[in-house]
Amino acid sequence: MLCVACLRLSAQSTAVSQVSGVVQDASGAAIPAASVTITNVDTAAGRTVLAGGDGSYTFTNLVVGPYRLQVVKEGFATFNQSGIILQVNTNPQINVTLKIGTVSEQIEVQANAAMVETASNGVGQVIDQQRVVDLPLNGRNLSQLIQLSGAAVPSTGGGLTNNLGYPTVTAVSIAGGQANATNFFLDGGTHLDSRTNVGLPLPFPDAVQEFKVETSTLPANYGSHAGGAVNAVTKSGTNSFHGDAFWFLRNYAFNARNFFAPVRDSLKRNQAGGVLGGPIVRDRLFFFLGYQGTTERTAPATNQSFVPTAAVLKGDFQTILAPPCQTRQVNLLASSSAVNNVLPVSRLNPVALKYAALLPLSSDPCGKILYGVPSINGEDQGVVKTDWRRTDRDSLFARYFITDYTLQAYYDKSNLLTAGTAGLLDRVQSVILGDTYLINPRTISSFRASFARSAVQRIGADGVPNMTQLGANVYSPIANYTGQVSASGYFSSGAIPGWVYSNVTALSEDIGMTRGAHQINLGFSWVHTQMNANGPFQQNPRMTFNGQLTGNALADFMTGSLGSMLQGNGQIGRDGQNLPSAYFQDQWKVSRRFQVNLGLRWDPFIPQHTKYDYASQFDPARFYSGQVSKVFVNAPPGLTFPGDPGYPGHSDTFPRYLDFAPRLGVVFDPRGRGTETIRAGYGIFYDSTYLWNTLHIPLNPPWGNTITITAPQGGLSNPWAAYPGGNPFPTPTRLPADFPFPTSGVYVFEPLHAHATYMQQWNVALQKQFSADWLASATYLGNKTTHQWLGYQVNPSVYIPGGPCTLQGVTFNPCSSVSSTEARRTFGLANPATGKYFGNTAIVDDGGNASYNALLLVLQHRFSHNFSALSNFTWSHCLDQGENGQDI
């Protein structure tokens, strides 16, 4: 470890390739000390090594692209092989047979490298440039091609991909891994949205050279996420000028009607741009530029809601509560003061009438309205890359990628319900600097420094009123946001604003060494993730009308009979996390046919920390024994905060520094030709948490102060009228030690000594190359996930049969009803005096498990003779106890 620390900081993935092989004579005897040179055809960058005593040679850290191999040895004819195409993170073997002759004699071979994997135990699939550019993509979203790889399944569940992230972020499950447990790299730099650990958007197809999807027992330079990896490489300039211009048009006028649709779609999409690359200084300095602009217009889909009719606005519910508006006759409760389903006009709430005035007046007797919200959006992407071969031993590159997405916020002033979708102003930027330095012919250094930033802003449309402006005695600090208002079965409104800025800074260094039969890689990496967020969704109150008070949700709304109201402070995230790691990997060539891969990775679990100490812990034993905090003296027993004895600093859980992940694999080449292999491997991979994982914790009292009141006596006009102490909002910016805690507080906690999720992986793979360009493989994949983070409720409401009963000084009849939900919770029943402060209380459970077993069959033909083909079949069985979500 001390030796590693002396190196420059290091990389987890460099998105490069290597070539190895054996130089031999016609009889198969090794030829030592042969001079082997490999040259990039596009840039003339070359590298030379001498074959070892067994005739073996290895070139590591080669950028993808076309190459020419030359072998020279006194007494033998010079060997030249062209047509070699290296792909991202591949390890082809090129064995060379020299014929006796003079050096001036030339043997020319036009052939690509072998397709069989002869070095790594990982299982992967390259999606090459031809497929990237030529395969049809809806919206030209490159990440769709990830699904061409076996065992890779896209995921849209769990809230991992929503409007808190860029619209084209990618959540993909590889070989049974969690949808946000996949590493994404762009040009060797970390390319993740640290909010939920999903992949950031990739550049448009014309700017990408190729990418590779890989998983299962990868070498020790891979870590931090257990599921697998997606490595993408952008294009570079060459000694020739290359470029293209494009315009893709999709318009409903050219489309046939979908057979099952009543009309043609309404999509209008234009995507135009181009790329250009070439030399600045021949053989030394190159450039690449790319741009794509997208505009998209979609006619609104038809939404259906039910709003108050002219009769309802006068208190008459006779028609709207009878068939055909209802499946059966509904009668308002006597407590509503209705007579034959007609309410006295005096019972209509003035705030509800003002809200209803912002809705269209339906001519339908049931109040049905149809409306649409048009979608007007656009995107601009740009890529700039420079490659500089400073010397024959030192190569550098720099790349910048930016993409902007806009979705216009919409509000039709005649219909408040049209303001139900937030607009978006999003930007993702990524920059990376790389340096590959040849220390000597058998030692190479690869350094990467990268930074990725995702800035997502949700905005409301101008002119949208809040409930305070409509006359309710509530605190509504967020402009252009009604708050979430819903009448069950009728309508809902409220486009939630907010913003999330997430940053990922990464420094990495990899030292590759060839020492006899050992190819050694060691390195160190440091990744710092950061998230600044504000979710004001509950700052303006969330109001729900469900019919429990009058017998009908719309009647509840019109009379201001609130079923429940939730309000709190903003969801403030100022979180960061440090992810250091170090690794050692040895590929030991025991013989020409047999290789052993040994690796060890240090992946400590260092939990995220919060800038403002928005962190808390709960211990049921402390609750039952009555132990209270010294930081907030009015906190209910069981709660502790940063500053209390035994609390883990600025985090919610303690770190674990002794997490080590071993890797073991073998590669057997039965005939030593590099055209068939049998591989088997095992490894442990630790995962890292995502920063939004427990961002409900800042909503815990006293900061978030999330309060839910059920059937408030003051109704819609004054819901806090009967709340102890009155309206608790706004709360002070700096909370004093004696800040009062609310009753029925909503809480989420992490365990004090949480374990990092880890996965054990194993595989057995058989590969066989047929002719020059066909490859078949059969692979068994297996893994076991341990310590997956899920969650469970520790304070549920207990069903109490019968009634009446008195709970916390209030009589309920029957005992178990909606209005008694909070009074029937476990802690309140155990200790009414202190338990009443706890409502919904969840704790992260790090005991989740999952397992995956699969058979992966692949047949492919790389591009030659004017065609390529790729087919795979995955037969898998996956069992888990839950999926990662956006929040606990």
| Total count of helical runs of at least 4 residues | 7
For the secondary structure, the number of strands is: 47
Low-confidence stretches: 1-13
Biggest β-sheet: count, sense, barrel? Answer: 19 strands, mixed
Q: Beta fraction of the residues?
A: 35-45%
| Protein structure class | mainly beta
What's the N-to-C terminus distance? 37 Å
Please state the overall shape, judged from the principal axes of the Cα atoms: elongated
Query: Quick check: average pLDDT?
Result: 91
Task: Give a brief outline of the structure.
This protein is 4% helix and 44% strand. The chain has 888 residues and is mainly beta.
Task: Explain the overall architecture.
It contains 7 helices and 47 strands. By secondary structure, the chain is mainly beta. Strand 38 and strand 39 form a beta hairpin. The relative contact order is 0.11. The N terminus is likely disordered.
Brief descriptors of the model:
888 residues; mainly beta; 19-stranded mixed beta sheet; five-stranded mixed beta sheet; 7 helices; elongated; disordered N terminus
Q: What topology emerges from the helices and strands here?
A:
Layout: H1 2-5, E1 17-25, E2 35-40, E3 46-50, E4 56-62, E5 65-72, E6 78-86, E7 96-98, E8 106-110, E9 123-127, H2 129-134, E10 152-154, E11 172-174, E12 182-186, E13 189-190, E14 192-193, E15 198-199, E16 208-215, E17 228-234, E18 242-251, E19 268-281, E20 285-298, E21 303-306, H3 350-356, E22 368-371, E23 375-389, E24 394-407, E25 423-440, E26 443-459, E27 485-487, E28 491-493, E29 498-515, E30 518-535, E31 542-545, H4 553-558, E32 564-567, E33 571-589, E34 594-602, E35 609-610, E36 617-618, H5 620-625, E37 639-640, E38 660-668, E39 676-686, E40 707-710, E41 745-749, E42 758-770, E43 774-793, E44 805-807, E45 810-812, H6 826-830, H7 832-835, E46 838-864, E47 867-880
Parallel strand pairs: 1-7, 6-8, 12-17, 27-31, 41-46
Antiparallel strand pairs: 1-4, 2-3, 2-5, 5-6, 9-16, 10-11, 12-13, 14-15, 16-17, 18-19, 19-20, 20-23, 21-22, 23-24, 24-25, 25-26, 26-29, 27-28, 29-30, 30-33, 31-32, 32-40, 33-34, 33-35, 34-38, 36-37, 38-39, 39-42, 42-43, 43-46, 44-45, 46-47
